[in-house]
Design brief:
By secondary structure, the chain is an alpha/beta fold. It has 3 domains: 66 residues, no CATH class; 58 residues, no CATH class; 122 residues, Protein-Tyrosine Phosphatase, Chain A (Alpha-Beta Complex). The strands form 3 sheets. Strands 7-8-12-9-10-11 form a 6-stranded mixed sheet, with helices on both faces. Helix 2 packs parallel to helix 3.
């Protein structure tokens, strides 16, 4: 079902390691309306005696994971407590970081071919997950191959839809962030740069409370409300109406294609066009 927790269809598997990333409000109708309830649902993937990696220590929910892990005798590790990082250089579509494990250098000048400081958290989480998997498989880690994989992961994994630069002049970036945490990270990232005008192509599915997300979006941006080509899509006219209550102005379009064309045609070469809100919307733009 894509819920990433107890009710996810993948939870029938017994893996070598389980991983839980940052907890944020999402799918509240099925997961719960507090972070603790959502964390409890996410903790449903923790299996007996299977190591569990927590990407980010969040004090309000860490105890939920510790209690669940203890109840099934699963070792639990927090990635951000074992690894630290420093951003050496950051560009619109890439960044260079150095990562320490404990007090010792682990990966120096790692060139990540994707921008966004959130990618550093993802990288650290992935590193600990991989190390744990290899240890449980009784295999050694070749750090040079790890670095190669991280520096080439878009081509190796067909990684798309997260801070993906689709074109320049105007700059078009697609990001499938669709909850408070994800969109906050994206907005923090674009605030590092200056754009004469920001145009946001926005669409959601109809089973989510989008009001908290709408509160985050910049009121001085131009919005293009769109309808993904799926039954679950929140109608663009309805989205426009709700968004207006939060001071967001723009036009509604019956399809993602029409909204994207309108945004590009109205943009100047130094403007930013940001595609947000739904994996389905981003997918139609790629």
């Amino acid at each position: 079902m894509g819920l990433g927790g107890r009710l996810d269809s993948t939870n029938i598997l017994v893996p070598k390691v389980t991983t839980i990333t940052q907890i944020s409000f999402d799918h509240q109708a099925m997961l719960g309306n507090t972070l603790e309830l959502i964390a409890a649902e996410k903790a449903g993937i923790i299996k007996p005696n299977v190591p569990c990696i927590i990407g980010e220590t969040q004090e309000e929910v860490a105890h939920v994971f510790r209690q669940k892990a203890a109840s099934v005798k699963a070792p639990i590790l927090f990635a951000d407590q074992l690894f630290s990082s420093k951003i050496n250089r950051e560009n619109i579509d890439s960044l260079c970081v150095s990562i320490n494990k404990g007090n010792k250098p682990y990966l120096s000048n790692l060139n990540i071919p994707c921008a966004g400081s959130f990618q550093v958290k993802n990288t650290i989480t992935a590193l600990l997950t991989f190390e744990t998997f290899m240890e449980n498989s009784h295999r050694s880690v070749d750090i040079s191959r790890v670095k190669f994989a991280l520096e080439n992961f878009p081509q190796l994994t067909n990684f798309i839809g997260r801070w993906q630069v689709l074109q320049h002049k105007p700059l078009v970036i697609a990001d499938s962030a669709h909850n408070i945490a994800g969109i906050s990270m994206v907005l923090n990232q674009i605030n590092k740069y200056h754009f004469p005008c920001i145009k946001i192509i926005l669409g959601f599915v109809n089973d989510k409370d989008v009001t908290n997300v709408l509160e985050l979006l910049p009121k001085n941006a131009q919005h293009f409300f769109v309808n993904a080509n799926i039954p679950r899509a929140l109608p663009s006219l309805e989205l426009k109406s709700v968004a207006s209550d939060y001071g967001l102005k723009g036009k509604a379009y019956a399809t993602v294609k029409r909204g994207k064309l309108a945004a590009i045609r109205s943009a100047k070469e130094n403007d930013l066009i940001l595609i947000l809100g739904s994996i389905f919307v981003v997918g139609e733009c790629l």
